[in-house]
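Support request, please re-run this one:
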Amino acid sequence: MGGKYTIVRHDLGDGAIVEVLATCENRDSDFLDRLFTRDRDRFKVIARTIKRISLSDGNAYRGTFLRMIDDGLSLVEIRIPGKVIRVMAYDRKVGNRMRLILLFDFDGHQGKTGNIPRHLIEKGRSLAKIARECAEGEQ
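Re-run finished. Output below.
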């Protein structure tokens, strides 16, 4: 299944590189690229948060910006401060450092429960497995 997908790298500036899961046939149009053209403000706040996480020890942001969804699969939710924007990501360990592979963005929890809808968690789990296969294939 990982053969239909690839990991695309984006340079966010100041040495911050972010990896995004993309389909092979739309390699030049992953969700971050589409977001850049469709909603520049949303792109900027996501990029700024990802940059902060990637330029530091990501563990410093656990609980603040990062919430583990599936520990066995390393699926995390990235919360954008002051916004309802969320990003699902696969937490790829490279040595002691956290390297996030972004999967997709979605609007955050609204309502009484504060839970992520089940279909988004299942989508995240499925894509995190694929991201893991792709990352292992690169090594």
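The chain is about 30% helix and 35% strand. The chain has a mean pLDDT of 82.
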